[in-house]
Design a protein that fits this description.
CATH topology: Spore Coat Polysaccharide Biosynthesis Protein SpsA, Chain A
Oligomer: single chain
Low-confidence stretches: none
Helix content: 25-40%
Largest sheet: 7 strands, mixed
Number of strands: 10
CATH class: Alpha Beta
CATH architecture: Alpha-Beta Complex
Length: 276
């Protein structure tokens, strides 16, 4: 079996209507030399059944990495998915982010040794998120200003993320004040670098575990490159019942420790304990 050039890791948990839309987006990517690794934090059987049927319709491999539902354990399932990746380069996103047709082509084009790539997303309201169907995704219409505004989206400056051509996107990438951090909804890097820092810190639940991973990459000497206006995905709205202040405060403390100690390794990652 040929090793894919890119492994795409998608996280999900009992959000099948949204996951379907996301997978339809990957089915029509212009860059097709990839495998899809679905990091499933305990979804019920209907998700597994859909993934099995979807895998029969596409040319790339689809891996379903599942663990039992034990509350919000995204960091843990992402580490399991990362270990399962066969490619040397890994793109990470979420099961509520639909990629534009050139999404993986952009990540493939801008990747470079010693760097990770930092993308963004365009957030949609719930009404628009619900309206989007397979035809709108496959045609690319749901990434256009006219279609979105005809389907309940209000005009804003943020639409520039979707309407900028390649030249303007490069300019906006360069001038945006947003840090080029590791964003779990749209980021990519070399698997060897992610393994070198021991993956995600599994103490961390909701709130900043992706940023903390990126901070350890930077402490390791990996630089970041901004592609938020080039690698486009649209973020479907949903409730966040797992969000709580205690988790966010705990994670904030872990991130402060990572920055203060300039940590490049977590003892709570893929391999427990200090680096040997």
């Amino acid at each position: 079996m040929k090793t894919p050039e890119i492994s795409v890791v998608i996280s999900t948990y009992n959000a099948l209507p949204w996951l379907k839309k996301v997978l339809w987006g990957y089915a029509v990517q212009s860059f097709q030399d990839f495998e899809l690794v679905i990091a499933d934090d305990g979804s019920t059987e209907d998700t597994a059944q859909f993934i099995q049927e979807f895998a029969k319709t596409v040319s790339f491999d689809v891996l379903h990495v599942w663990q039992e539902d034990n509350g919000f354990q995204k960091s843990q399932i992402l580490n399991k998915a990362l270990e399962a990746c066969n490619a040397s380069y890994v793109v990470m996103s979420d099961g509520d982010c639909i990629p534009r047709k050139d999404f993986l082509a952009v990540h493939q084009r801008y990747r470079a040794p010693g760097y990770f790539l930092s993308g963004g997303y365009f957030m949609l309201p719930m009404s628009t998120s619900t309206i989007i169907d397979q035809a709108a995704i496959e045609s690319g219409l749901c990434f256009t200003k006219d279609w979105l505004m005809a389907n309940d989206l209000k005009a804003s400056f943020k639409l520039r993320k979707l309407t900028s051509g390649a030249f303007m996107a490069k300019i906006l990438n360069a001038v945006t004040p947003t840090n080029a951090s590791w964003n779990g909804h749209n980021a990519s890097g070399w698997k060897k670098d992610l393994l070198a820092i021991n993956g995600f810190d599994q103490r961390m639940q909701y709130g900043g575990q992706d940023r903390e991973l990126g901070e350890r990459l930077i402490n390791l000497g990996i630089k970041s490159k901004q592609i938020r206006y080039s690698a486009i995905c649209i973020h479907l709205d949903h409730p966040r019942g797992y969000k709580n202040e205690a988790s966010i405060a705990k994670n904030r403390g872990i991130r402060q420790e990572t920055r203060h100690q300039k940590s490049t390794w977590t003892a709570y990652g893929i391999h427990p304990g200090p680096k040997s």
